Amino acid sequence: MKLVKEGKTKTVFALENGNYLLKFKDDVTGTDGVFDPGANTVGLSIEGMGQGGLRLTTYIFEMLKKNGIKTHYVQSDIENKTMEVLPAVVFGEGLEVICRFKAVGSFLRRYGKYVEEGQELDAFVEVTLKDDDREDPPITKDALAMLNIVNNDEYESLKLQTQKICKMVKEELAKFGCELYDIKLEFGSNNGEVVLIDEISGGNMRVYKDGKIVEPLDLVKIVFGE
């Protein structure tokens, strides 16, 4: 294996077969020691988070696969906290695609004059640039095309896939009495096709149960009945 990138929550290796290996860490994003899926810095380390995040990611990717959704997922080794994935080229230097079902987090901070906390949102999709120095600025469809980051066809595919995938995840979590407020996805291009990449775990979503936010590892325990 060849080290490719040391990320915030994962280490990326290149495999001899042309695929990549993601090694999940126990680190999660946040600020001042408080978990926040919308933060762009590592805020804390939670023992067992790497393995737990991979378990939930694998569970969701397998569910998407059964429903005909193409992703970069190949297979996982839960014990070693690794996931083999197909190669994919990110758009620009990376995008984050957020699907929002409730007005919380940065959406509420920006648009609080017009919405109330927890107000229903209809699977609203927004795209931000992965840019720590500029605090991941939101960007529009027109700007993405103008800057040659994502063309209009790719954007429409990205948006439709995001809404479809996130509604599936929302329905799945509802089976466990959990409500998905928002979720952050990433996409890349594999052989010219827009596909879901990275992970889908408690570390990149806000989930509530009985009116209280569910911490990432607690979500794993709820889903797997532990």
Topology:
Layout: E1 2-6, E2 10-14, E3 20-24, E4 27-31, E5 34-35, E6 42-45, H1 49-66, E7 73-77, E8 82-85, E9 89-90, E10 95-102, H2 105-111, E11 120-129, E12 138-139, H3 141-146, H4 152-174, E13 179-190, E14 193-197, E15 205-209, E16 212-213, H5 216-223
Antiparallel strand pairs: 1-2, 2-3, 3-8, 4-5, 4-6, 7-8, 9-13, 10-11, 10-13, 11-12, 13-14, 13-15, 15-16
Helix pairs in contact: 1-5
3D architecture notes:
With 226 residues, this protein is an alpha+beta fold. It folds into 2 domains: 2-85, Phosphorylase Kinase, domain 1, CATH 3.30.200; 93-216, D-amino Acid Aminotransferase, Chain A, domain 1 (2-Layer Sandwich), CATH 3.30.470. Helix content is 27%, strand content 36%. The protein contains 5 helices and 16 strands. It has helices at residues 49-66, 105-111, 141-146, 152-174, 216-223, and strands at 2-6, 10-14, 20-24, 27-31, 34-35, 42-45, 73-77, 82-85, 89-90, 95-102, 120-129, 138-139, 179-190, 193-197, 205-209, 212-213. The strands form 3 sheets. Strands 9, 10, 11, 12, 13, 14, 15 and 16 form an 8-stranded antiparallel beta sheet that branches. The chain has a 5-stranded antiparallel beta sheet with strand order 1-2-3-8-7, covered by helices on one side. Strand 4 (27-31) and strand 5 form a beta hairpin. The protein is globular, with a radius of gyration of 17 Å. The model has no long low-confidence stretch (mean pLDDT 94).
